[in-house]
From TrEMBL:
<protein>
    <submittedName>
        <fullName>Gfo/Idh/MocA family oxidoreductase</fullName>
    </submittedName>
</protein>
<feature type="domain" description="GFO/IDH/MocA-like oxidoreductase">
    <location>
        <begin position="126"/>
        <end position="236"/>
    </location>
</feature>
<dbReference type="InterPro" id="IPR000683">
    <property type="entry name" value="Gfo/Idh/MocA-like_OxRdtase_N"/>
</dbReference>
<dbReference type="InterPro" id="IPR036291">
    <property type="entry name" value="NAD(P)-bd_dom_sf"/>
</dbReference>
<dbReference type="InterPro" id="IPR055170">
    <property type="entry name" value="GFO_IDH_MocA-like_dom"/>
</dbReference>
<dbReference type="InterPro" id="IPR051450">
    <property type="entry name" value="Gfo/Idh/MocA_Oxidoreductases"/>
</dbReference>
<dbReference type="Pfam" id="PF22725">
    <property type="entry name" value="GFO_IDH_MocA_C3"/>
</dbReference>
<keyword id="KW-0520">NAD</keyword>
<dbReference type="Pfam" id="PF01408">
    <property type="entry name" value="GFO_IDH_MocA"/>
</dbReference>
<feature type="domain" description="Gfo/Idh/MocA-like oxidoreductase N-terminal">
    <location>
        <begin position="4"/>
        <end position="116"/>
    </location>
</feature>
């Protein structure tokens, strides 16, 4: 079987990594790149840097990655869908849910794989947490908390911290819990003089009863990427910056010290840090995309799922503006 012909549009800070991984993947040949801004990281090599999505599609590609700024996602993706190209769009899927709906419909109608690059779902730590939840290690899951903090990335200009960063946490939380958001409440801050929010605190509840909260900002000098899943048998903590997973087990030995037992709740048990395989999330994501295009198991984040995440993010923005809890 001939290799799939791949293209990438947007070869900036994120797109250059898609170019690199495509070149290293089995079953795929990178045959075209496009970017109206040229090739700032010099990743095109011998390939001509094409001007737009139409020119990319004309290169005879089977699949493409869209890594242009969010405001251009819809136009670019619709052009590729009309040309019959399977497409993975970097997150968030679109600038708003109306655009996301049009994109999802276009790929469904054309019977094409339309995927969204929610890369944190492919982080080995989150994959391991999801597997252990499914295996029943925690028993009933009570709460999922995330913290995603760090300095402001100068490359982000067209969206705020909710769409850029919190969307990661919304997607991975819904996926890990295998449930959907039913309520969202949020508080935002604008501290850096930009039109978009740079800090958000989100609380919410999933349809299966799990409580969630997300602390996200661009205002911290330290970089933090933590997901904490608390359940009836203990707590799993995933550090997606290092791809480490630690399990804090509820204790089996009850304390005999009455003064402590009165307020301790569950007892502290064993702490285990798991050794897991640490594959690059982007490689895992693009392999899943390739396999779906080839007709194998579809392990991509679908545009419908990306749209659901976008709707939660929009609800968080609406809650912050109205100071009311939003029901989805």
């Amino acid at each position: 079987m001939a290799n799939l012909r791949a293209g990438v549009i947007g070869i900036g800070a994120m797109g250059r990594h898609h170019v690199r991984v495509f070149r290293e993947m089995d079953g795929v040949d990178l045959v075209a790149v496009a970017d109206p801004g040229g090739d700032p990281f010099r990743v095109a090599g011998k390939l001509e840097v094409l001007p737009d999505a139409a020119a990319l599609a004309d290169a005879g590609i089977d699949l493409a990655v869209v890594a242009v700024p969010t405001r251009f996602h819809e136009e670019t993706a619709l052009t590729l869908a009309a040309a019959g190209v399977h497409t993975l769009v970097e997150k968030p899927v679109a600038v708003d849910s109306a655009a996301g709906e049009r994109m999802a419909k276009a790929f469904d109608d054309a019977v094409l794989v339309g995927a969204v690059g929610h890369i944190e779902r492919y982080n080995p730590a989150i994959q391991e947490v999801r597997r252990r939840i499914a295996d029943g290690q925690l028993g009933e899951v009570y709460q999922i908390s995330t913290r995603r903090q760090g300095p402001f990335p100068a490359r982000i200009a067209d969206v705020g911290v909710i769409l850029d960063l919190a969307s990661h946490d919304i997607d991975l939380t819904a996926w890990a819990a295998q449930s959907t958001y039913t309520t969202v409440s949020a508080q935002t801050s604008f501290r850096s003089g930009r039109e978009h929010e740079d800090m958000v605190l989100i609380t919410g509840r999933l349809a299966n009863g799990v409580n969630v909260n997300h602390t996200v900002n661009w205002l911290s000098p330290m970089k933090e990427r933590l997901t904490v899943v608390a359940g009836e048998r203990g707590t799993l903590i995933a550090d997606t910056a290092t791809a480490d997973v630690t399990f804090y087990e509820n204790g089996r030995v009850q304390t005999e010290w009455d003064a402590v037992a009165a307020f301790r709740g569950v007892a502290e048990g064993d702490v285990t840090r798991y050794a897991i395989a640490k594959r690059e999330p982007l490689r895992t994501e693009l392999e899943a995309f390739r396999d779906a295009v080839l007709g194998g198991e579809n392990r991509t984040v679908s545009m419908a799922e990306g749209l659901a995440t976008l709707r939660v993010a929009e609800a968080a923005k609406r809650s912050a503006q109205t100071q009311e809890t939003v029901r989805l």
